[in-house]
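REVIEWER CHECKLIST
Item 1: Sequence provided? yes
Item 2: Single chain? yes
Item 3: Sequence as submitted:
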Amino acid sequence: MILAGGLSTRLYPLTKQVPKPLVPVAGLPNAAHLIRYLTSFGFDEIAINVHYFADMIVSALGDGSAYGAHLEYLHEKELLGSAGAVKQMQTFLGGDSFVVIGCDDLTDMPLDRVVAFHKEKGALATIGLVEREEVDQYGVVVTDGSGKITGFQEKPAKGTERSKLVNTGIYVFTPEIFEHIPAGTFYDFGKDVFRALQQAGAAFYGFDARGAQWHDIGTPAEYRAATSDVLTGKLRIPGFSVDGSVWIGPAAKVAPTARIDGPSVIGDRVQVADGARIERSIIWEGSRIGKNAVLRDSIVGINYEVAPGATLENAIVANE
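Item 4: Structure as written out by the authors:
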């Protein structure tokens, strides 16, 4: 199941027009990258919950067949949290061990190894973990020598962390997890389910995926970092390749005297005028970059117009 119901306020104003499952990474909605990632490991029956701009998501992803999957939609009129959304899909998910992933995730984590570890340990729940040098903006997970989870720290102050392993939002569960999620109420994996499992001493494990690439693209900094890693080949995602560190959409028009330095993305139908200079920036589809405009380390939202001669540096701009 892909969790996709949230508003993604951390990416405002970009996501005031585009729901977070459709935030583009190198020209393709991140949810599409996730579907391809899941199908590459044999997961082709996929549930996804929708709420904010639900019709736009359904229109973009369809039935999933374009990406080799079947999508089962959960339309949530009222959001019930990450665990609450999964609970509503119990009939669809409950036959065997299943995977849950956030629509903000972009990763090359070996999901087959995570599932194998989960089954080897006889785990009720397993979290995919990656190492971060700076962990003060993440949920830190503490494990013992066997991988069993012994504690959590939420965004610990620098120097107080008990681990360098962070929660990626990539989970494997056995169907018994549904016994720990009440129906019809707001319930969250991180705040409710996981802490209860850890305190009860349940078979709750963390898979150390040290060395795997992972980004939570729900923040501007991580979104830009993820895009850079994809364009430079550091993060390889199924069904996507790029020659060089600049991706240009098939219907984009770039004037001969414009200059684009990577890693940069020029989305589909974007127009870049003469003399414009774009450095390490992401331009979403349909936008227009005026003559002699300069963009550095910036993100431009869908159908936005950058005025001729304008300079954007470390900026995020979008129509509201």
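Item 5: Key structural point noted by reviewer: The chain has seven helices and 26 strands.
Item 6: Recommendation: ____
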